[in-house]
Amino acid sequence: MLAHNGAAARTAGAGEERTVFHRPAPLGAGGSRRGLLVWIAVAAAALVVVGVAGALLAPVANASDFAQANQAPSAAHLFGTDWMGRDMFARTLAGLATSLAVGLVAAGASSVIALALAAVAALGGPAADAVVSWLIDLIMGIPHIVLLVLVSYALGRGAAGVMVGIALTHWPSLARVLRAEILQLRAQPYLACSEALGVGPVRLALTHIVPHVLPQYLVGLVLLFPHAILHEASITFLGFGLSPEQPAIGVILSEAMGYLTAGSWWLAVFPGLALLTAVLLFDRIGSAVRALVTPEEVQR
């Protein structure tokens, strides 16, 4: 028999011995619930600080000074300056704040679509389930970038086009998970009793189903954020997202491509690292939230 460390672990139960085939690895020093909560709070606070600082530095990010153009990183300009003399530190923070705002709104809308369609599929009968399943397969069968570009271009690009495109393309995976959870919940006897007592489907969903799938929904919502931010930056980099006047990370990276051959490496390195850091923070928050709602993964 296989076990986590190569041998089967045996634990004594109530008067009997049972074999444990797999024991999740400890999460380390921060594996306790308190440690996970502290990590989530610190990471979320860092993202909030970046968003607020970026919003406050938006006027500075757009201020041009051609006398300071194309300067390498220094004490006066931590991330250097671009070809228009704009401070890249302020521009990176402002761009990251814009990308975070667009990603958060788009991911939130996409998660609501996923929850609504999962509830319709699980509670609306075989016909509704078939339609939702067909929609999931259809959206998942089209590459995200292609569909995002088409939706954004059809809506005139800009922030609205990007958010609508992300919201309409990122819900299928979460909808699949929530649909499976709701279908499993439907097999519980207390739901059958509620239906027999005349409880309507809307009240049934609000009082029993939504509270049950809320942990899975929150985990999926958090994990949607990094995908939304990366895809927003991707289509903006390709020229189908936010307008060049907006200091978004995708705009900054797209503009920097024409100056890398001249040795201005800082125009792309620091904004790229900032985007990567934000995505990793969201990913770690999602992993911590998933550990909190999965008791066997948390040290007690």
Describe the fold and architecture.
The protein has about 300 residues and is mostly helical. It has one domain: MetI-like (MetI-like fold, Orthogonal Bundle), CATH 1.10.3720.10. It is about 65% helix and about 5% strand. Strands 1-2 form a two-stranded antiparallel ribbon. A hairpin with a 4-residue loop joins β1 and β2. It is elongated and about 75 Å long. The protein starts with 8 loop residues before the first strand and ends in an 8-residue tail after the last helix.
Write the H/E string, N to C.
Answer: EEHHHHHHHHHHH
Count of discrete domains: 1
CATH fold assignment: MetI-like fold
The shape, in one word, is elongated
- Average of per-residue pLDDT values: 79
* Biggest sheet overview: 2 strands, antiparallel
Low-confidence stretches: 1-16, 20-30
Oligomeric description of these chains:
single chain
Main sheet strand line-up? 1-2
Structural class: mainly alpha
Tell me the distance between the termini.
Answer: 27 Å
Q: What CATH architecture label applies?
A: Orthogonal Bundle
CATH-level-4 superfamily name: MetI-like
Q: What is the C-alpha radius of gyration, as a whole number of Å?
A: 24 Å
Total number of helices: 11
Beta-strand content: under 5%
Number of strands: 2
Percent range for helical residues?
55-70%
